[in-house]
Amino acid sequence: MSNNAEKRRQRSEKIDKMNNFEPILCGFATIVTGGGQQHAECEAALLKNASKQKNIWDADWIPFTQTMAYESIINIRPSQNNRSVIIQGLKIRERFS
Question: What is the Cα–Cα distance from 36 to 95, expressed in whole angstroms?
Fold first, then answer.
């Protein structure tokens, strides 16, 4: 089993014990974080590591469907043409892949 496959398996087992999703936040041009109990924990880690708030976007990894859900209150950004909890920009969504 590849290292990435093993990590996904371990993450899925962890999620089974907690809930049905894993918060994942991206601070583009810097780092990606995930696995916190709440999105705020991941956001705090990114900000602590010099990410800028305007570059932090939020999504959830859903292991049962192997998909991403791009919905979070943090994604509402009228100044960046994102007026919804859903990440509307395809380029931003692709960065999570």
Answer: 20
Q: Do residues 31 and 13 touch, judged by C-beta distance below 8 A?
A: no
- Ranges of each domain in the chain: 3-95
- pLDDT tens-place string over residues 83-93: 999 999 888 88
Q: Count other C-beta atoms under 10 Å from residue 96's C-beta.
A: 17
Q: Per-residue b/e over 72-82, b at no fewer than 16 CB within 10 Å?
A: bebbebeeeeb
Burial of 43 (0-12, 13-18, 19+ CB in 10 A): buried
Q: Note if the pTM is more than 0.70.
A: no
- Tokens 């692709």 sit at which residue? 94
Residues in the chain, how many? 97
